[in-house]
Amino acid sequence: MLEEILDFRNIQKALQRVISNKGAGGVDGMQTDELRDYLTQHWSDLKSRILSGMYRPSLLRGIEINMLSFIFCV
Asked: CA 4 to CA 46: how far, in whole Å?
């Protein structure tokens, strides 16, 4: 099933749908036109790393929430 999800035609279809919906760039700041170029250049390597379990997405910038402050402010 993962092979079907990662089929390049499926990825292209998903990207086209995001573009047609005027989807915004992601948290990494990459716009959809940049993503298309990136996937064209790197898809083979990216797919093989995902399938082999070697792909590790980069960490997102997190924020720390002080729960005590949150509880007392509500």
From this structure: 15
